[in-house]
Specification:
seven-stranded mixed beta sheet, three-stranded antiparallel beta sheet, single chain, Nucleoside Triphosphate Pyrophosphohydrolase, disordered N terminus, 10 strands
Length: 169
């Protein structure tokens, strides 16, 4: 039996008719669904951006102010807003968390962690075009790092992988 992600388990009632949802096999997978109105909770992943910003002082990382991984470091990023272009989201998140204005250079790749909340992360490479490096809305600190001063406590496995690959180039 395929297990449901934690995000699905929180949904107990149908948002259309309020009937209690059942764990039904649909399309070869177990999904929360309503037997009355046929609503299916597909649990599609939420799109997220994470951006590798390089400055003259190194790769920009933010120290997380909130859980999960409070006080660990990560790439600036976050959820894409409704109707927002992914590159616009990356630019906005970098500015909100670091005070830097950036130009997106390229999409580095997309990946899904496979655990925790259900997301697909779009990783971008960007360069600084303006602004001042300062911790923003959900960052308690911000810094630019090179391989010799990189913090050991990087929050997410995929961020660690991308940062490692960045310094191997």
């Amino acid at each position: 039996m395929t297990s449901l992600r934690a995000t699905s388990i929180k949904m107990k009632s149908c948002p259309i008719c309020t009937t209690v949802l059942k764990n039904l096999e649909i399309g070869g997978k177990h999904r929360l669904a309503c037997e009355v109105c046929e609503f299916v909770h597909w649990d599609n992943p939420k799109p997220v951006t994470a951006t590798m910003v390089t400055t003259e002082n190194g790769l920009v990382l933010v120290k997380r102010k909130f859980e999960p991984f409070v006080d660990d470091w990560c790439l600036p990023g976050g959820f894409i807003e409704a109707t927002e272009d992914p590159e616009e989201s990356a630019i906005r998140e970098v500015y909100e968390e670091t005070g830097l204005e950036v130009k997106i250079e390229r999409l580095l790749g997309a990946s899904a962690p496979g655990h925790g909340i259900n997301v697909v992360i779009l990783f971008y490479q960007a360069s600084k075009v303006g602004g001042t490096l300062v911790a923003g809305d959900d960052a308690s600190d911000v810094g630019a790092f090179n391989p010799t001063n990189l913090p050991r406590n990087i929050a997410f496995p995929l961020h660690r992988k991308m940062i490692s690959e960045h310094f191997l180039r």
